[in-house]
Amino acid sequence: MRRGPRTRRALAGCLAALALLTSCTGQDGGDGRTDGAPTPGVPGSAEPGTLRVLASSELSDMKPVLDRVREDTGLTVRLTPIGTLDAVDLLAKGGTEGKYDAVWLSSNDSLRLRPEAAKHIVSETPVMASPVAVGVKDATARKLEWQAGKVTWSQVEQAVADGRLTYGMTDPARSNSGFATLVSVAAALSGAQSALTDADVAKATPRLREFFTGQKLTSGSSGWLAAAYERRGNVDALLNYESVLLGIPGLTVIRPTDGVLTADYPLSTLASSGGATRQDVRRLAEALRTPEMQQEITRTTHRRPVLTSVPPAEGLDTSRRRELPSPGSRSVADGLLDAYENELRRPSRTVYVLDTSGSMAGERLTRLKTALTALTGDFRDREEVTLMPFGSEVKRVATHVVDPADPRAGLDGIRRDTERLTAEGDTAVYTSLEKAYGHLGGGRDAFTSIVLMTDGENTAGTDAAGFDRFYASLSRERQEIPVFPVLFGDSDRKELTHIAELTGGRLFDAREGSLDGAFEEIRGYQ
């Protein structure tokens, strides 16, 4: 199977994480910070009585608990949210030294698989747990005659095959909740009794192919997945962590009886921390594991307590659960992810609406070309990519398909059209978006989206009100195509936020980070 350089890097991060079970990519909508914590990625200086914690970003829901910890112990916890895979990479590169005191991820499995990351951790204490689950619309569960605690992954597969169930899940190559779900399904459908092998994956592949015909919604984060589910209402279920699903009204939460993977959220001390800081991390872990705090955690977050003496919150199934095996090696996980990306899932179809107005001349255009060229290594087999550069109007429309039989031809075509980009003209944002929607009027069964990159305000063609009227006139099917705007240069945050909110997309900021980083992050939503 084909893997470009960037795809290999993305897969390697997930494979290193293996069963790093988290529901986020660091972009779930909340900043995850408490008590005046710094901007993500800028942890600030150490302060007595303050712990700087690099944390999976879904842990923003722990703020009420951490507020109580501060009251009880005097410890202030500053969470810096990050995607779990990014945290592992940061540890491996030594990027946490002197900047953080502890790491709080959904699982430390990756640290044990990557010695260069593991050496930066000196202790870990599990705090809470959440298994993978299936959240089915109440009405759908009744039609299927499903009851929580009495459904298997095989029954979910059969419902998909019968055309009675569609669902959404996060991208397993970028979100660990998606990866945990993929492993859970593969292990269950293969009947694996121990760590997944290549033979298990091969055995399960025909059933996995059937299973993923039901996936109609993808996302790089659990937060956006839940929002898209509630906005569109066009899928019957969500596959995610139990704690996430219990926070969405109208879902019957099912934990398949043939097994799942579970996150255990260990609080881990960094080797670079001093003796007093290590003692503070230990105090924090002990405070979080008291019966009172365990009760508060399960009540407010729907995660399960790790103390057997504390009962799970109401609504959490207390029956014994089977923990499914993770892949037996990185190569097995590599093959499973590669099969998902390039064979099992629906293909992607994306229009890149690219501002090449006069203000993009020079360094900005160079950065755009560099980012797009790098991105070609991440395009999947069967993917349709359209480049739509614009200035005062759309300059041209170039569409390429990454044919599995000859992927290089499509990728080379994208690179050639990228190199041809020139900067001139005004900035017709809305008119160009309208043309993108027209281009996506029909055709393939695919995950369809529009990426808008602009470095300035709209100065030509249709205005915001005109685009709003245009969007309102679209069919419901086309209105479900999200726009993912990218802030760049002097672009207007308010203007682009409105586009994202109107279309059900999400805003990405390339002004704080890199343009190629923003494009890469969007991949989880395509």
Task: Describe what this molecule looks like in 3D.
By secondary structure, this protein is an alpha/beta fold. The protein has three domains: 19-127 and 264-288, Periplasmic binding protein-like II (D-Maltodextrin-Binding Protein, domain 2, 3-Layer(aba) Sandwich); 130-262 and 321-340, D-Maltodextrin-Binding Protein, domain 2, CATH 3.40.190; 347-525, 3-Layer(aba) Sandwich (Rossmann fold), CATH 3.40.50.410. It is 40% helix and 18% strand. It is built from 21 helices and 18 strands. It has helices spanning 5-17, 63-73, 84-92, 109-113, 115-118, 138-144, 153-161, 176-190, 198-211, 222-232, 242-245, 275-288, 291-301, 330-344, 363-375, 407-419, 429-439, 464-473, 476-479, 493-503, 515-522; strands at 50-56, 76-82, 102-104, 121-126, 128-137, 167-170, 215-219, 237-241, 251-254, 262-263, 266-270, 304-305, 348-355, 384-390, 398-401, 447-454, 483-487, 508-509. Strands 5, 6, 7, 8, 9, 10 and 12 form a seven-stranded mixed beta sheet that branches. Helix 20 (493-503) links the parallel strand 17 and strand 18 (508-509). Helix 9 (198-211) packs parallel to helix 14 and helix 15 runs parallel beside helix 21. The longest helix has 15 residues, at 176-190. The protein starts with a helix and ends with a helix.
